[in-house]
Amino acid sequence: YLEREGFKTSTHSNARDALNYLETHQADIAIVDIMMDGMDGFELCNEIKASYEMPVIMLTARDALSDKEEAYLTGTDDYVTKPFEVQELIFRIKAVLRRYQINAENELTIGNLKLNQSYLEIACDTKTMTLPNKEFNLLFLLASHEKQVFSREECIER
């Protein structure tokens, strides 16, 4: 179904295979079931979020509120329960990718330092800090224009 909508897919029977695939291939989104052999979907979501910049949708038969809570706490971007309408899954995939693209445009990564323009946050490893608007915008300007020199006036204008 997803291929008919223009999506290229890769299916894996367990979390380890999926992580091995991600080490050598580019993926735009991960659709994960909670119930898998070995590592469960919550753990896989944690691994993906820790290592890759991609959204995750949980697609599972488990519909308990506690499962949904755990999924969102591990970083999932959406939660779909089985049975589901294929067209609804496609709508959700497109919506998550659209939101993720908007967020990606507002983020800048330099090494292990991440600047999030939407939240005025700087994250380095496990530490996050919020800056005042003007300070953040100055830092974002300088960081996003690598090897470019700005005069004081140019910094004030921007």
UniProtKB/TrEMBL annotation:
<keyword id="KW-0805">Transcription regulation</keyword>
<feature type="domain" description="Response regulatory">
    <location>
        <begin position="1"/>
        <end position="97"/>
    </location>
</feature>
<dbReference type="GO" id="GO:0005829">
    <property type="term" value="C:cytosol"/>
</dbReference>
<dbReference type="InterPro" id="IPR001867">
    <property type="entry name" value="OmpR/PhoB-type_DNA-bd"/>
</dbReference>
<feature type="DNA-binding region" description="OmpR/PhoB-type">
    <location>
        <begin position="105"/>
        <end position="158"/>
    </location>
</feature>
<dbReference type="InterPro" id="IPR039420">
    <property type="entry name" value="WalR-like"/>
</dbReference>
<keyword id="KW-0804">Transcription</keyword>
<feature type="domain" description="OmpR/PhoB-type">
    <location>
        <begin position="105"/>
        <end position="158"/>
    </location>
</feature>
<keyword id="KW-0963">Cytoplasm</keyword>
<dbReference type="InterPro" id="IPR036388">
    <property type="entry name" value="WH-like_DNA-bd_sf"/>
</dbReference>
<comment type="function">
    <text>Member of the two-component regulatory system HssS/HssR involved in intracellular heme homeostasis and tempering of staphylococcal virulence. Phosphorylated HssR binds to a direct repeat sequence within hrtAB promoter and activates the expression of hrtAB, an efflux pump, in response to extracellular heme, hemin, hemoglobin or blood.</text>
</comment>
<dbReference type="Pfam" id="PF00072">
    <property type="entry name" value="Response_reg"/>
</dbReference>
<dbReference type="GO" id="GO:0000976">
    <property type="term" value="F:transcription cis-regulatory region binding"/>
</dbReference>
<protein>
    <recommendedName>
        <fullName>Heme response regulator HssR</fullName>
    </recommendedName>
</protein>
<dbReference type="InterPro" id="IPR001789">
    <property type="entry name" value="Sig_transdc_resp-reg_receiver"/>
</dbReference>
<keyword id="KW-0902">Two-component regulatory system</keyword>
<feature type="modified residue" description="4-aspartylphosphate">
    <location>
        <position position="33"/>
    </location>
</feature>
<keyword id="KW-0238">DNA-binding</keyword>
<dbReference type="InterPro" id="IPR011006">
    <property type="entry name" value="CheY-like_superfamily"/>
</dbReference>
<keyword id="KW-0597">Phosphoprotein</keyword>
<keyword id="KW-0843">Virulence</keyword>
<dbReference type="GO" id="GO:0032993">
    <property type="term" value="C:protein-DNA complex"/>
</dbReference>
<dbReference type="GO" id="GO:0000156">
    <property type="term" value="F:phosphorelay response regulator activity"/>
</dbReference>
<dbReference type="GO" id="GO:0006355">
    <property type="term" value="P:regulation of DNA-templated transcription"/>
</dbReference>
<keyword id="KW-0010">Activator</keyword>
